[in-house]
Amino acid sequence: MTIYNKTKTSGYKLDELQAEINVDATIVPSCNSITGSGTAIALDFAAALSAGEETTLDTIISNHVPSSDVVAASTLLTSESSGDKLAIHESSRPQIEGKFFHTYWTGSGDDMTTPAIGGGTILIVDVLSTDTEKSVDVQFHKDYGDVYLHEGYIQWENAGWGDCVCVEVIATATPLQQSTNLDYTIDASVKIRAAAGGPGTGTDGLNGDPVWVPNAAGTGWWDIVNGAASFSSGQTGAYDWYTVEVLANRFCNNIPVYGSSSNYVMLQSADTTLLPSGYIVRVKAINNSATAWKAWMFMTLYREQTV
Q: Cα(132)–Cα(128) distance, rounded to whole angstroms?
């Protein structure tokens, strides 16, 4: 046997790719098996390929487009104890073509300055008796790929009657400056739009990447067209950019806590929430009892890189 290590940056299905290779008459040795991990695939052939056959192989791999089934046939297992029924493993892990997501448990965000994975703020809230609420924010750096929030685990100590915990996903304000490339203005709803007079005629310029906030009503100033920002002059866009923080998703709302928990409590979910660039997770303790207490938390994420 001869192993060929290749890269496939877009999605693939190993059984379909193997069939496409073996049906090509210009490749004589049969492909016995294929294994894959992320973008790396290893192909086992019965004999070494010629230079021309390897070129054909590269073309087949590059042109391969998997079928659109949600679950590949290879993941369906026949159960001996249940006749001809199919046993399916359910997972909340995101399935996105060309990407692989690792399960990642963390009690901190990323260091956004260095940057460094896992080197940021720790999810600990130390509430004073004089605090009406106390919060801690964590963020994940865009350079390390997509991040999805899945579940959380929380513990607390000495919470008073009526105290609560919230977990929210916040879209931060789009960073602006007033010195150069003043291509934008701010409307009455603190949304950023393109200057009516064209580039250079506005009051503000971007000072970093815009933070995209979905506009469910379809009345946004912005769209994404071919991967680039497109201004919607008729305000019919799918997104907005804001000059203030916007609550994008509420993961947990006013979960009551009291006394001291003996162990972590699991905030279980079957869903995942994307944390786009510019979004933060905010853990907030509501101190209705006016007492001093503590809460700490870790989260289950799916992310493309963990180190």
A: 9
One-letter amino acid identity for 78?
T
Domain coordinates of the chain in residue numbers? 1-90, 102-171+246-303, 173-244
Query: Mean pLDDT of all residues in the chain?
Result: 90
Q: Which residue has the tokens 């008796």?
A: 129
Residue 222 class from Cβ within 10 Å (0-12 exposed, 13-18 middle, 19+ buried)? buried
- Read off the pLDDT of residues 51-102 as tens digits, 9 standing for 90 and up: 999 999 999 998 888 875 444 444 444 444 555 555 555 678 888 888 899 9
d(CA 135, CA 286): 9
* Residue 127 amino acid letter: V
Q: Distance between CA atoms of 152 and 140, rounded to whole angstroms?
A: 16
| pLDDT, tens digit (0-9, with 9 covering 90-100), for 193-222 | 999 999 999 999 999 999 999 999 999 999
Residue 37 is encoded by which pair of tokens?
Answer: 């991990």
Angle between helices 14-23 and 51-63 (to 10 degrees): 140
How far is it, in rounded angstroms, from Cα 60 to Cα 107?
43
Q: Which CATH architecture is the domain 102-171+246-303 placed in?
A: Sandwich (2.60)
> What is the pTM assigned to this prediction?
0.70
Strands 164-171 and 246-256: antiparallel
